[in-house]
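Appendix C. Worked example: TetR family transcriptional regulator
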Amino acid sequence: MNTPIKLTDRKRQAVVEAAIAEFRASGFEATSMDKIAATAGVSKRTVYNHFPSKDELFAQILHELWISISSAEPPPFNPAQPLRDQLLNLLGAKMEMLQNGYFLDLARVAIAEAIHSPERAQEMVARLSGKEEAVTTWLRSAQAHGQLTKADPLIASQLLQGGLKTFAFWPQVTMNQPPLDPAMQRQVVEATVDMFLAYANATA
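Step 2, the predicted output written as structure tokens:
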């Protein structure tokens, strides 16, 4: 049985979604808490009850971004399964995250604000790098089991994830292109994996 969402939780989420919309439309500095309250359809007092400042609202947006990224972290490498199949599953999960509309909105807000606030950019890049380290660790494990004969795990991780983002992240974030359709998602995942395996000299 589904647990009903409390009214206070619905209002909190409405505030976060309103902040995302306003930060995207006007930027962090130009957005007021009054405007966020109006867009969310709640009182200004309700906004401040949940988030004492815009900085805390922005921190919540980043937190939700990290949670989304964490959900796509790969399971441990399994030497008993074909490497290609595991890579397809790994990138398939990452593709699903990258093409999620809510995740893209979070990313647009975070990246736009990072451009205007270098100190936030440094923190964001550091935390994102920490999340993406999970793929590097996975590749190191594959290499330790003799499945990757040439590739440096750190470089290989950037190539693997960067290939996916070329089609399934940056066009949507920077040029507001629509998410890829399911067939194109599968095509991009398969092409990225096969090109990676050719580069890595893998024994798939």
